[in-house]
Structure to design on (485 residues):
């Protein structure tokens, strides 16, 4: 164990290895860094192509048994996993905070959200429906069954190390699929800790395999080329999503893609200003802005614009920045030094083009990867920050006059994941929501994520939905029988 890790008591920092076929295969080669200090916490195994194919073998060996396991039994295992995550919630939250940096309240929120996917899919596992109909010709019957699609490769990002994994594992296991999870190498400890809890919950060996690697392309390409792998469920950047879609095309693997976002946050002048400010802080600052649903562009109607900027500045400047594990912290560090440099580049570029800084605006000195809550207005529409996913605690505010202008600005992006609308007029909010090209719209709320609702984007924010009533179908194929009797 490293000296930094000795200061933390989590058993998840010990015994790092690949989790394949229910066994821990020792290894090393991936340092895990505490973003609050830059210190190395642990060293986890670095899988190569041979390990990846071993994981496919393990998932294949377990596939028939898992598929044949009664839905009630699969549901019971998921439910026990939910309970174990809930029982170990504080330990998991501290681990997430340690390796990802997010403030403990955010980490606790993530654990609750993540565990809920297991409870929700425990409930859904026993409710998967088919169809029985008469053919319109009257000649026969149409019977449709849903079958598990096959072995699923799950690739997840670092920003929600628990929730992005459970949002895939839950429906996959409910559907009857076996999986290989490849978490981001910045935050592998949470994934391995959850695999341990899964084994305790009764997940049979090989049903869930976890591997970390420094060669994600080679490892995932090898798995996608294996004809036994029939599903890719990816959450991450649009850039990597495009590469993986091209790779999956070679073997025509079914893809679900949860990609980048560029959420607009619209405030009309009939909105409740205080409620809009509360919502803005949640939509912008949950996870210190490192969320795909994070409000990325604030469009505020002229009459309310200055009061909104003043209120937002006051709230942002009052947020306490620090190590995620310190109880008082509301804004933790960014994930890496590179993340801070990217935010700095976007903000400096906007300032050089005439943006006004109301608070923040420069990386914080010292060790760790800290960027302060920042508010900008007067940002030119051609600044890079007006189009790029910021992924940090920076709110850039723009002014609009008419509803049509707000819609046009909101849609001026290749992304279409989430959008927020604040208005006192519900019919206007729904009308605008319909016109916005986005998979999810929050009206007079700063958050929309809910395991019981379909999460996902349109345009280049993704393909398919996770959660809700249809999430399990991403891991199933319909099989149609034409029946004459
Ligand atoms: P990323 O795309 O860099 O990495 C995501 C995962 O893909 C990681 O596990 C990484 O190791 C792996 N990866 C990278 N290159 C690969 C390759 N060539 N082949 C196979 N795997 C590869 O994204 P990130 O920086 O970890 O996460 C941030 C991004 O994720 C943001 O764009 C954010 O919007 C997006 N995100 C989207 C959602 C959503 O639900 N839509 C949720 C969370 C994050």
């Amino acid at each position: 164990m490293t000296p930094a890790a000795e200061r933390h008591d989590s058993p998840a920092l010990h015994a790092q290895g690949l989790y394949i076929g229910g066994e821990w295969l020792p290894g090393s080669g991936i340092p895990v860094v505490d973003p609050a200090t830059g210190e190395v916490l642990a060293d986890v195994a670095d899988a190569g192509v041979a390990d990846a194919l071993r994981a496919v073998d393990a998932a294949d060996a377990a596939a028939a048994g898992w598929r044949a396991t009664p839905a009630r039994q699969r549901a019971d295992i998921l439910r026990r996993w939910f309970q174990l995550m809930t029982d170990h919630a504080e330990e998991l939250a501290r681990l997430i905070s340690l390796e990802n940096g997010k403030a403990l309240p955010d980490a606790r929120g993530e654990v609750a959200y993540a565990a809920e996917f297991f409870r929700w899919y425990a409930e859904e596992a026993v409710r998967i429906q088919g169809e029985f109909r008469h053919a319109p010709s009257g000649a026969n019957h149409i019977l449709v069954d849903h079958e598990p699609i096959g072995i699923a490769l799950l690739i997840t990002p670092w920003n929600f190390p628990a929730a992005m994994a459970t949002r895939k594992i839950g429906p996959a296991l409910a559907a009857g699929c076996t999986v290989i999870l490849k978490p981001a190498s910045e935050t592998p400890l949470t994934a391995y800790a959850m695999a341990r809890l899964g084994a305790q919950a009764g997940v049979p060996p090989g049903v869930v395999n976890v591997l970390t690697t420094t060669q994600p392309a080679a490892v995932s390409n090898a798995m996608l080329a294996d004809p036994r792998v029939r599903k890719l469920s990816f959450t991450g950047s649009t850039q990597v999503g495009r590469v993986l879609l091209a790779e999956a095309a070679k073997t025509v693997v079914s893809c679900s893609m949860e990609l980048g976002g560029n959420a607009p946050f619209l405030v009309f002048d009939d909105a409740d200003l205080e409620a809009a400010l509360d919502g803005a802080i949640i939509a912008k600052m949950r996870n210190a802005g490192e969320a795909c649903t994070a409000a990325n562009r604030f469009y505020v109607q002229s009459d309310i614009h200055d009061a909104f900027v003043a209120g937002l500045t006051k709230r942002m400047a009052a947020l306490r920045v620090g190590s995620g594990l310190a109880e008082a912290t509301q804004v933790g560090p960014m994930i890496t030094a590179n993340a801070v440099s990217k935010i700095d580049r976007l903000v400096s570029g906007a300032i050089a083009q005439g943006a006004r800084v109301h608070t923040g605006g420069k990386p914080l000195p010292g060790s760790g990867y800290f960027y302060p809550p920042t508010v900008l207005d007067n940002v030119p529409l051609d600044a890079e920050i007006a189009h790029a996913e910021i992924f940090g605690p920076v709110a850039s505010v723009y002014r609009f006059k008419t509803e049509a202008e707000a819609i046009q600005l909101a849609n001026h992006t290749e992304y279409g994941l989430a959008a927020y609308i604040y208005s006192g007029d519900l019919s206007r909010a729904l009308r605008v929501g319909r016109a916005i090209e986005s998979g999810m719209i929050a009206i007079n709320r700063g958050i929309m994520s809910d395991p019981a609702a379909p999460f996902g984007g349109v345009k280049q924010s993704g393909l398919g939905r996770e959660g809700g009533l249809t999430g399990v179908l991403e891991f199933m194929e319909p099989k149609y029988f034409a029946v004459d009797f």
Remarks:
- The radius of gyration is 23 Å.
- Residues 209 and 316 are 41 Å apart (CA to CA).
- Residues 155-160, 164, 182, 184-185, 216-217, 220, 235-237, 240, 243-244, 258-261, 292, 389, 417, 457, 462 surround nicotinamide-adenine-dinucleotide (CB under 6 Å).
